[in-house]
Amino acid sequence: MSGPNTSFDPKQVSSLNAAAVEAMVSDAMAAILAAVDLADLKDVRLAHAGDRSALALANREIGALPPAAKADAGKRVGEARAAVKAALEDRQTALEGERDERVLAEESVDVTLPAVREQVGGRHPLTTLMERVCDVFVAMGYDIAEGPEVEAEWVNFDALNVPPDHPARTMQDTFYVTASDSGVVLRTQTSPIQIRAMLDRPLPIYVVAPGRVFRTDELDATHTPVFHQVEGLAVDENITMADLKGTLDHFAQEMFGEGIVTRLRPSYFPFTEPSAELDVQCFVCRGASVGNPDQACRTCGSEGWIEWGGCGMVNPRVLQAVGIDSEKYRGFAFGMGIERTLMFRNGVTDMRDMVEGDVRFTRAFGLES
Ligand code: DAH
């Protein structure tokens, strides 16, 4: 190892003379000022203050100087490096500030701009109405029952005491699956769910059954080949027609408003005996329009009553068909159309509006839960 070279003159080490160090500093300062962003500045820092920068290399030369020269050169290079470091820090702070401002500006949100609204649909009113019907009966302790839309002819007709020669079974009304003698139909009513409920469930039975039904009708303002019904069935000991009437009155009030009652008119259905047509009191005029031309009512046609469905006491022959002791048990049943209910309840005048799927129709009911 050789000792320090005492004859060494720092003025002759070109990288350590004042002019050279000044030039390194001014190079560095120019580069620092020219850095336009933080990535640029990173490169500048490496080039002018990094281990291999001119100033770092000059610093290394100091060690080799004679002691007399060391202090002078050390001070010069030290000050130069400190100045460059300070300038780098200033520029770093300035560029970070610029970046933050730019990001704030770019990411700012103008809350006064009109929003792009998502197109939302509405649940179909038939769906919400059926749910509402179910809620009314579930609150009274009923179960919800279901059945298949493709149904055995026996369940859809025979078990319900609809004889083979009944006009409803002809090709005009019923969609047969494959051939007319296939024994399989698209259910024409929700009443077959009564049969399935009685076959499947233990007694007593209290069920409500909404569902889609099918008939060979042309689509027009008052008919649609696919529509919905809701069926009710109660089978228990000591059931009477008074229970049926009370249940229907409660149902009518829940659907149409307080105080609305029902009316039963004698009728005929094969699966009930006695049977009745079920009318609901007009919830708009409450009968005030009857015989009163000044107060004509569009909802009930000034009849005071609106035809709502059918009902009756379950025919003992139906109970027998499903193996229920008709001496011990009795039942009541009712069924009504959901489309028809929606029509007079919500003033829908054309059934086609319900099936065409135009969102402008459903959206009008969109707020109904
Ligand atoms: N299923 C009948 C129809 O589609 C409606 C009906 C009438 C259902 C009387 C019943 C009832 O449960 O007891 O026309």
What does this entry show, briefly?
One of its GO terms (cellular component) is cytoplasm. With 369 residues, the chain is α+β, with helices and mostly antiparallel strands.
List keywords for this structure.
about 40% helix, 2 domains, alpha+beta, BirA Bifunctional Protein, domain 2, 9 strands, single chain, binds 3,4-dihydroxyphenylalanine, two-stranded antiparallel ribbon
Q: What does the model show?
A:
The chain has 369 residues and is an alpha+beta fold. It has helices spanning 18-34, 38-49, 54-62, 67-107, 125-138, 153-156, 192-200, 241-256, 316-321, 338-346, 352-355, 359-363, and strands at residues 143-144, 150-152, 184-186, 205-214, 226-236, 262-269, 272-281, 305-314, 330-337. Helix 1 runs parallel beside helix 4 (67-107), helix 2 (38-49) packs antiparallel against helix 4 (67-107) and helix 3 packs antiparallel against helix 4 (67-107). Strands 1-4-5-9-8-7-6 form a seven-stranded mixed β-sheet, sandwiched between helices. Strands 2-3 form a two-stranded antiparallel ribbon. It has two domains: 12-106, no CATH class; 125-363, 2-Layer Sandwich (BirA Bifunctional Protein, domain 2), CATH 3.30.930.10. The structure holds 3,4-dihydroxyphenylalanine. 3,4-dihydroxyphenylalanine binds next to strand 8 and strand 9.
